[in-house]
Amino acid sequence: MYHRVVALIACCVASTCIAQSQPSTQVELVAVGRLSGQALDLSGLTGTLETDTPTNQLGGFSAIEYSGQANRYIVLSDRGPGDGAASFPCRFHEFELSIDVQNKSIVPQLRKTTLLKSALGQQLTGSLKAVDSSPNEAESIAFDCEGIRQFDSKSFAISDEYGPSVRLFDASGKQFDHWGLPSAFRLCANSNEKGAMGTFPNRGLEGLARSRDGGQLIAAMQGALVQDGVVEGEKCLGLNTRWLVIDSQNKRAGRTKQLVYPLTDESTGVSEVLAVDAHRYLVIERDSNAGNDAKFKHIYLADTQGATDVSSIASLPRTQLPESVKPISKSLLIDLRDDRFGLGGEATAEKPEGLCWGPDLPDGRRLLVVCVDNDFEVDRQSEFYAFAISL
Q1: Looking at the whole model, is its pTM more than 0.90?
Q2: Which helix (H) or strand (E) holds 11?
Q3: Strand 280-286 relative to strand 329-335, pairing
Q4: Closest CA to 355 of 289, 254, 299, 274
Q5: Is the pLDDT of residue 267 over 80?
Q6: Residue of 169, 174, 186, 84 whose CA lies nearest to 125
Q7: Comparing 247 with 23, which gets the higher pLDDT?
Q8: Cα separations (Å) of 343 from 97, 335, 372?
Q9: What is the rounded radius of gyration, in angstroms, for the C-alpha atoms of the chain?
Q10: 140 or 135: whose pLDDT is higher?
């Protein structure tokens, strides 16, 4: 009898673990759309960049946001081709995404391109050479666009990995305000120095969400801060990343708090966050591999309820957290490599980067739209996925 009970308990525990590690059955891929890597935008720019890429190249989609009108979406391009080697003028686009659930297709049609300008009217650029051009992050023209959220009917909040920073832009693309991040998040000039702290290069501010009530902006780091990890060569290794929660309605108060989001593996990083309700968020967590080499292309359902504010903790452990710190909890919602979606195997895209909610589907399920970054490679398509979600 004892052995039967033990076996039963073991079976239940195993079943629970499997349920937590498997993607949800409340998810259906309803449409896919692709856009040629050779497509050009509507910026009106001419000539070529230092990388011999047309200045009006369309691609590098790092974020997506629903406009609230019909089937119009705002899609943000990142810093441009060549990982900062080009003087790419920063921009976002307005797309019409015709999502046909019956035929499982998305037809993307570009309607408008808007260039981003500083508060002084200067063109923002993705060039690494411009990073040190201004000591004031609010005036810097160096900008690595990563996340975009509609702030109100006339403006957008956009996160920048270079600063890192979060800035506000009007509909014309001109900056009119910004939120300064705590000094512990500033770009680390020399991560090998003793006591170094800040954002490790290219592992900075990636995801941006706006809470459902509009009162908070959630800025998520891609990887661990230097003080929360271990620098080995050209990598900063650590499982504990920070989310900065900004009081977006009372800017002068400068109120923020910091939460810990634990990565699944040190090879992964956060690409995007999206609010679900008052305390739950969707999170893209992925590795940097494509095709059959890819192992992690996940969308997690994360819950901040009860998570500890770690603002006063200067340094977090590389892996295990102290018992006094409760991290954000998470469970796997979507594995983009799941065979039922047909997006895995050799077809696995390297960079699913953006998430947004579209208008609800006729059956009441929520429409989740994912955009994929093609790194401005002309032989690689930009992609859009649409999922029906029951949450």
Answers
A1: yes
A2: helix 2-21
A3: unpaired
A4: 274
A5: yes
A6: 84
A7: 247
A8: 19, 10, 12
A9: 21
A10: 140
> What is the b/e burial string over 342-379, where b = at least 16 CB atoms within 10 angstroms of the residue's CB?
ebbeeebbbbbbbbbbbeebeeebebbbbbbbbbbbee
Measuring CA to CA, which residue among 166, 169, 143 is closest to residue 156? 169
- The answer to whether the Cα torsion of 77, 212, 279, 338 is positive or negative is negative
23 pLDDT tier (thresholds 50, 70, 90):
low
The whole-number pLDDT of residue 81 equals 96
Angle subtended at Cα 374 by Cα 238 and Cα 267, rounded to the nearest 5 degrees: 15
Integer Cα distance of 271 and 257 in angstroms: 20
* Closest CA relative to residue 238, chosen from 203, 283, 284: 203
Query: For tokens 């992050």, what's the residue?
Result: 137
Q: H/E element holding 282? A: strand 280-286
| Cβ 171 vs Cβ 238: under 8 Å | no
Average pLDDT along the chain: 91
All residues at 6 or more sequence positions from 98 whose CB lies less than 8 Å from its CB, including other chains: 71, 106, 107, 108, 109
Concatenating the DSSP letter of every residue in 180-243 gives PPPGGGSBPS-TTSTT--SBPTTSSEEEEEE-TTSSEEEEEESS--GGGSEEETTEEE-SEEEE
- How far apart are alpha carbons 324 and 311 in whole angstroms? 14
100-125 burial, b for 16+ CB within 10 Å, e for fewer? ebeeeebbbebeebbbbbbeeeeebb
